[in-house]
């Protein structure tokens, strides 16, 4: 955390009217910086901490050891950053202009959030800009910005800041903007007034539970990541379980099914952020073409993209599964044959599975 509130500002920041005006200004500056919405909350996450600990106890986090590594720092902001008493939470939309269907076809499906440039640097830069603007107003104060980069319960904080509710699919949903948005936070020692938490509006709807290809949403508000296609294709470094491979279809990086069917996403607004627009045809790329990319091509085409974190090996693993889920076709088998002797045992195993499936 940068320096705490300077002594000359402490008296001014005890005045409720001054603090209310400052909070309003922060929200205005946030909108000017490109955020769709800004909210402010405290640090009490006791109920969410209990939920997190139960989730971890059930091993729903799979191989994501980092979820448990930091203990309760994730649910206690003041332990992660001493002095924190408020969290400024922001939302930035990334909804695409169109919502194409993605059946099991020869086009790859990549989650919408990953089709453009990696959001981390862009949002972090704008959060820092917002914090700097605030520092110009109040002088030195304690803060730190976060964008999916530390043990932060961002969805719970955003809910408490009024940006949306956590839906049955465990994603944050906003009644005016659906769920296609990124979140970021500024932890701070400023005693700002807090916003009202968002209320829940899923009602009796269970569209997300019913559509999930692998039934990863095991109950309303409960996600077993070990079954989730996003986990299997992005987070997991292991072989994808064979019984789940047929359900992955043509999804090679993430899955948006539970968002696509959510009725609240009819309110999602298309982003005008150029960095979030699809690059390299990632909204309509051909599976075979992607599968035949060399490692050099993969690194070149995914520079500045969230996809690069996969590495070429897992990229091929995922696409091999997607190709194995297609209708038998000589060109698909020929492409798989080219990777049959790949140096990676992980790739070879998935290629053999795909060829066997196509030839059965």
Automatic annotation (TrEMBL):
<dbReference type="InterPro" id="IPR017900">
    <property type="entry name" value="4Fe4S_Fe_S_CS"/>
</dbReference>
<dbReference type="GO" id="GO:0046872">
    <property type="term" value="F:metal ion binding"/>
</dbReference>
<dbReference type="InterPro" id="IPR013542">
    <property type="entry name" value="QueG_DUF1730"/>
</dbReference>
<feature type="binding site">
    <location>
        <position position="74"/>
    </location>
    <ligand>
        <name>cob(II)alamin</name>
    </ligand>
</feature>
<keyword id="KW-0479">Metal-binding</keyword>
<feature type="binding site">
    <location>
        <position position="230"/>
    </location>
    <ligand>
        <name>cob(II)alamin</name>
    </ligand>
</feature>
<feature type="domain" description="4Fe-4S ferredoxin-type">
    <location>
        <begin position="190"/>
        <end position="222"/>
    </location>
</feature>
<comment type="function">
    <text>Catalyzes the conversion of epoxyqueuosine (oQ) to queuosine (Q), which is a hypermodified base found in the wobble positions of tRNA(Asp), tRNA(Asn), tRNA(His) and tRNA(Tyr).</text>
</comment>
<dbReference type="GO" id="GO:0008616">
    <property type="term" value="P:tRNA queuosine(34) biosynthetic process"/>
</dbReference>
<dbReference type="GO" id="GO:0031419">
    <property type="term" value="F:cobalamin binding"/>
</dbReference>
<keyword id="KW-0408">Iron</keyword>
<dbReference type="InterPro" id="IPR017896">
    <property type="entry name" value="4Fe4S_Fe-S-bd"/>
</dbReference>
<feature type="binding site">
    <location>
        <position position="255"/>
    </location>
    <ligand>
        <name>[4Fe-4S] cluster 2</name>
    </ligand>
</feature>
<feature type="binding site">
    <location>
        <position position="258"/>
    </location>
    <ligand>
        <name>[4Fe-4S] cluster 2</name>
    </ligand>
</feature>
<dbReference type="InterPro" id="IPR004453">
    <property type="entry name" value="QueG"/>
</dbReference>
<dbReference type="GO" id="GO:0005737">
    <property type="term" value="C:cytoplasm"/>
</dbReference>
<feature type="binding site">
    <location>
        <position position="172"/>
    </location>
    <ligand>
        <name>cob(II)alamin</name>
    </ligand>
</feature>
<feature type="binding site">
    <location>
        <position position="183"/>
    </location>
    <ligand>
        <name>cob(II)alamin</name>
    </ligand>
</feature>
<comment type="pathway">
    <text>tRNA modification; tRNA-queuosine biosynthesis.</text>
</comment>
<keyword id="KW-0671">Queuosine biosynthesis</keyword>
<feature type="binding site">
    <location>
        <position position="212"/>
    </location>
    <ligand>
        <name>[4Fe-4S] cluster 2</name>
    </ligand>
</feature>
<dbReference type="GO" id="GO:0051539">
    <property type="term" value="F:4 iron, 4 sulfur cluster binding"/>
</dbReference>
<feature type="binding site">
    <location>
        <position position="148"/>
    </location>
    <ligand>
        <name>cob(II)alamin</name>
    </ligand>
</feature>
<feature type="binding site">
    <location>
        <position position="262"/>
    </location>
    <ligand>
        <name>[4Fe-4S] cluster 1</name>
    </ligand>
</feature>
<protein>
    <recommendedName>
        <fullName>Epoxyqueuosine reductase</fullName>
        <ecNumber>1.17.99.6</ecNumber>
    </recommendedName>
</protein>
<keyword id="KW-0170">Cobalt</keyword>
<dbReference type="Pfam" id="PF08331">
    <property type="entry name" value="QueG_DUF1730"/>
</dbReference>
<feature type="binding site">
    <location>
        <position position="169"/>
    </location>
    <ligand>
        <name>cob(II)alamin</name>
    </ligand>
</feature>
<feature type="binding site">
    <location>
        <position position="202"/>
    </location>
    <ligand>
        <name>[4Fe-4S] cluster 1</name>
    </ligand>
</feature>
<keyword id="KW-0560">Oxidoreductase</keyword>
<dbReference type="GO" id="GO:0052693">
    <property type="term" value="F:epoxyqueuosine reductase activity"/>
</dbReference>
<keyword id="KW-0819">tRNA processing</keyword>
<keyword id="KW-0963">Cytoplasm</keyword>
<keyword id="KW-0004">4Fe-4S</keyword>
<keyword id="KW-0411">Iron-sulfur</keyword>
<feature type="active site" description="Proton donor">
    <location>
        <position position="148"/>
    </location>
</feature>
<keyword id="KW-0846">Cobalamin</keyword>
<feature type="binding site">
    <location>
        <begin position="255"/>
        <end position="256"/>
    </location>
    <ligand>
        <name>cob(II)alamin</name>
    </ligand>
</feature>
<feature type="binding site">
    <location>
        <position position="205"/>
    </location>
    <ligand>
        <name>[4Fe-4S] cluster 1</name>
    </ligand>
</feature>
<comment type="subunit">
    <text>Monomer.</text>
</comment>
<feature type="binding site">
    <location>
        <position position="228"/>
    </location>
    <ligand>
        <name>[4Fe-4S] cluster 2</name>
    </ligand>
</feature>
<feature type="binding site">
    <location>
        <position position="208"/>
    </location>
    <ligand>
        <name>[4Fe-4S] cluster 1</name>
    </ligand>
</feature>
